[in-house]
Amino acid sequence: MAVQRGRGRGGVPNSPADAVTEPMPAVATNGTNGTPGRPVAGDVRERARAIPEAAVARLAVYLRVLSAMSEQGVGTISSEELSVAAGVNSAKLRKDLSYVGSYGTRGVGYEVSVLIEEIERILGLTRNQAIAVVGIGNLGHALANYGGFPSRGFPVVALFDVDEDLMGVPVGGILVNHIDEIGQVCASRDVSIGVICTPPPAAQAVCDRLVSGGVRCILNFAPVVLQVPDDVEVRKVDLAVEMQILSFHVARRADEVALGRDGRDKTLNGSDVPGVDGVVVRR
Amino acid sequence: MAVQRGRGRGGVPNSPADAVTEPMPAVATNGTNGTPGRPVAGDVRERARAIPEAAVARLAVYLRVLSAMSEQGVGTISSEELSVAAGVNSAKLRKDLSYVGSYGTRGVGYEVSVLIEEIERILGLTRNQAIAVVGIGNLGHALANYGGFPSRGFPVVALFDVDEDLMGVPVGGILVNHIDEIGQVCASRDVSIGVICTPPPAAQAVCDRLVSGGVRCILNFAPVVLQVPDDVEVRKVDLAVEMQILSFHVARRADEVALGRDGRDKTLNGSDVPGVDGVVVRR
DNA sequence: GCGACTTTGTGCATGCGTTCACAAATGGAT
DNA sequence: ATCCATTTGTGAACGCATGCACAAAGTCGC
Prior knowledge:
disordered N terminus, disordered C terminus, homodimer
């Protein structure tokens, strides 16, 4: 399969799993997105998931805001200020921070530097997480050159593709290797996160190679539901899904207006021949 | 993926995904509000949010799977089969489909073509949603050329950037316009979804222009919390956040191993001097 | 040192989403 | 025509996340 840009249409679209939320995604959600794209997991082990996934995602946002604050010379910040900057409820923010620990001073607020340090510790950002990008098409190129990764502790250390013309070509400073070398290269370069940007048909195979190379965390941009061992974490970003969610809101809004601003009325099931479009609004 | 507002997927982040989360305002929560939550305070409308955001995200996934099935000539499918293909619980899948309506046949399953039609109707995919991409950098280029959009009813009809060298240059078949023209061009080309791929500092200004151009739905790739009117829907995809969430899992896993596979013990608050790293695992 | 003020941290209630479990509905076989 | 096997659709239980409201804790000024 040609792992390369373009991505033939008419292909076989597949399925991801929610983000959100979880997304996520973007996720699943989306969840939504975020999108904890992974089937149950129902073992006995009962992971006492210390920090809610949703909180973890927000912590990352707080961290960015805090970094910006820090650069501006802000030394202390209250939950109220930080929550506004991050676009969340202040109570939620405090609760999120409480998962990290009690590092605030009542009557004063939080010391920015301390908070940054602690959140980074929780998120495992104290040490660099090497990442590998597979599928050097449009998106892969963009990610390989994306400055946001290395500057935040995620150095791109490996690139892979099937296109022979790309072998040995430097992209964003890294030479492209063949996907057959994924396992070996990832293991030797200690890759902890793999990013899949291949066409859908190639995604699962690539995923398997990454896993065999010791990669336990995967960020998947291919619209496919990946099958992985229980100990591998997959997050999915599905652009088409994101667009469709927005599309849903456009449609919903249109209906609202059409129905006169208060779509109430249960047409549940009774209707066929929707004529134009009658999105059933449940009550 | 991190999604903000809309979704779910993750409150601020996303989850996408993920983690699907609740819609949150970018509106500053000031103390004077007696408005509970944020759902539409002022008016009476009280939108009985027909379909949970998380379900919407999954419907998009089902749609993709169904399309694939259809192309393979599958005419009928049971909730069990579909749920496996989509990577979700079958009960959840049935409930999701029930939001759309009752189009299944007990003892048999669902007719693929009917399901596709109905889901497309709900998601507002019966008519094309024109999209505009702002910020033609690496990511913008990738999106402009991304085949997954037009083929799914999301034609890219406008591109914008500030770089003079890009003006009039065709990218993916569309000529690039200057961001000052956003309002006018979006209005005339009837853009319903705007995609922001600009550097963080430019995001808010671009967002404002899109809104003034009549765009009510925005997909934001810039790591910034956008401020928008209540009637504008924003979804956020934050790659750095996605990476950090994965990083968190890497770290958690490492701790687990270090603690002997079942980190239980609430050191909540009592600890300082974490020595190395002691992610508190709550119970 | 004391009192007033500010802000954190969290118990609790609420609401949403997930999952279970089963009655209802349908096709096919006898 | 009736029974059996199958699968949908959904009421209800459960669990997690959100948001509120307040006591605890600490600062500042006098």
